[in-house]
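Weekly sync, protein design subgroup
Attendees: M.S., D.O., the rotation student, P.L. (late)

Item 1: inverse folding check
M.S. brought a backbone from last month's batch and wanted to see whether the design step gives back something sensible before we order anything. D.O. pointed out we never logged the input encoding, so this time it goes straight into the notes. Structure tokens as presented (152 positions):
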């Protein structure tokens, strides 16, 4: 009995230390994309601060599709033309973002990704409304937004 309780205590300690390690890595910030980094280094524009704020508010008010995958994953590669098409066809109506979880491993824990590609759907308030794992055609993505009464 004594030996069993010691083993249970050791197992419990190992589990807690693993959870602490996972929690510590999930707080790591995701690196900005190169285009965003270039924007931050550019010269300040002559545009008034109010119009910049207005644009930022408009961008945040859009529904969002977040695709988490990897550059070298075959189903993820199949998603790239779909995502590009959505970006072009629904510019100003939908925010489409891609995160490579192999390059940003902390994103996997942050978004609780089990397999890739995973698409996460957000409403205009930033609330997650749905998610899908695997390849997802454009028509099905649009139907998912429509199912949640989000007009694009």
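Designed sequence read out in the meeting:
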């Amino acid at each position: 009995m004594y030996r069993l309780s010691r083993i249970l205590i050791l197992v419990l300690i190992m589990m807690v230390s693993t959870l602490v390690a996972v929690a510590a890595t999930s707080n790591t910030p995701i690196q900005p994309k190169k285009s965003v980094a270039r924007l931050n280094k550019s010269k300040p524009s002559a545009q008034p601060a109010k119009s910049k704020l207005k644009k930022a508010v408009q961008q945040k008010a859009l529904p969002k599709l977040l695709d988490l995958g990897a550059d070298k994953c075959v189903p993820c590669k199949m998603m790239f033309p779909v995502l590009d098409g959505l970006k072009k066809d629904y510019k100003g109506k939908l925010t489409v973002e891609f995160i490579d979880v192999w390059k940003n491993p902390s994103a996997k824990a942050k978004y609780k990704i089990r397999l890739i590609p995973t698409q996460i759907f957000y409403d205009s308030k930033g609330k997650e409304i749905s998610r899908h794992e695997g390849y997802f055609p454009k028509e099905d993505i649009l139907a998912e937004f429509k199912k949640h009464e989000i007009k694009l």
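Discussion: The longest helix spans residues 2-26. Strands lie at 64-69, 95-100, 118-122, 128-133.
Action: P.L. to compare against the previous round before Friday.
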